[in-house]
Amino acid sequence: MKSDIANAQKPSEAVRRLNALKLELEDDWSTVVSVQWGETPKLAPSPQKLIPQTKPTDAGSALTPAIQLLGLSKSYGARQVLRNLDLAIREGEFVAIIGRSGCGKSTLLRLLGGLERPEAGKIQFAPSNHDPAIRIMFQESRLLPWKTVQENVALGLGRTQTSKDIVQKTLAKVGLADRANDWPARLSGGQKQRVALARALVHSPDLLLLDEPLGALDALTRIEMQSLIEELWQQQSFTAVLVTHDVQEAISLADRIVLIEDGRITLNESINFPRPRARGAAAFAQLEERILRQVLRQTN
Ligand SMILES: Nc1ncnc2c1ncn2[C@@H]1O[C@H](COP(=O)(O)OP(=O)(O)OP(=O)(O)O)[C@@H](O)[C@H]1O
Ligand SMILES: [Mg+2]
Question: Which pLDDT tens digit goes with each residue over 104-162?
Fold first, then answer.
């Protein structure tokens, strides 16, 4: 049975949507918007992710996609933001969404996270995992200031020893094992985002949605965080959709770059460079220039 978030007639869909919206409304402080859609079997790691060079260039053509956007449209009042979008995302794939400010990147992410309803079209998840666990991470860490680092990461987990161990392990993965008892106010911006990342990953999401999570960080911290995200994505095998303004960041991290212009996908390109990617490489720079030229052409 396929999941169709456009179809709110089904009781399970209505409950799912209500829960997602409730979480967003009630927990404005939340770093991660929990859209845990029921008991979901974990996905097997994607074999493609480990050897990105061998991926097919036409995304979704060789394997059944984990997520499919079919004729997705969204308007706010008279303003049409997304127009008839089709996109297939493979299990374990890292997709970057780029585009000018206001082109609808966050709207697309919110639709994927079940926080908005499409006006037309639908989002289908693969039958093997039609209720994926989804987490969203934003530009602001949205940590609860009255909870310690480890309490922030533990939100939504039980208070068992196993949960405590998982929190501690996840904090170690993001390099903050020694800051578990600190208050968020004592952390730098980059450290706060590490906590936010830990808070998302502690739930072992199938799909991690990232809305410019590194946008407010300085250049060096940003590069460090990019490496960390890439490393954890490779370890944990989740599907990632990253919204970013930064073409270099998109090329560094993504298997595929999707450009949205005027509500439509105008570029959908696989990146087959081996990982970790060398920013100084000629092919990297050429690709960056070509994509940047396309992003900027509207103003030229
Ligand atoms: N809740 C809303 N109500 C009305 N209009 C909205 C709403 N959310 C977004 N929009 C409009 O939809 C368009 C796309 O917004 P969105 O936030 O998706 O853009 P974006 O690509 O993420 O931009 P940015 O890069 O600046 O974050 C914008 O014109 C915005 O004003
Ligand atoms: Mg946005």
Answer: 999 999 999 999 999 999 999 998 888 999 999 999 999 999 999 999 999 999 889 89
Ligand 1 lined by 262 (C-beta under 6 Å): no
CA 134 to CA 70: how far, in whole Å?
Answer: 19
Radius of gyration of the CA atoms of the chain, in A:
19
Alpha carbon nearest to ligand 1 atom 23, residue: 102
Give me 68's structure tokens. Answer: 């499919």
Phi and psi torsions of 282, nearest 5°: -60, -40
Q: Check if 76 has its Cβ closer than 6 Å to any atom of ligand 1.
A: yes
Contact present, 48 and 63 (Cβ < 8 Å): yes
Span between the terminal Cα atoms of the chain, in Å: 47
Ligand nearest to the CA of 97: 1
- Name the β-bridge partners of 72: 85
Dihedral sign for Cα 230, 216, 69, 22, please.
Answer: positive
Helix, strand, or coil (residue 163): helix
- Whole-angstrom distance, CA of residue 102 vs CA of residue 114: 20
pLDDT in tens, 1-44: 333 333 434 445 555 555 554 444 334 333 333 343 332 333 33
Task: Provide the 8-state DSSP code for 173.
Answer: H
Give 115 Cα–ligand 2 centroid separation in angstroms: 14
Q: pLDDT digit string (tens) for 253-277?
A: 999 999 999 999 999 999 999 999 9
- Pocket flag, ligand 1, residue 115 (CB < 6 Å): no
Pairing of strands 120-125, 65-76: antiparallel
pLDDT in tens, 107-119: 999 999 999 999 9
Among residues 239, 238, 200, 224, the alpha carbon closest in space to that of 276 is found at: 224
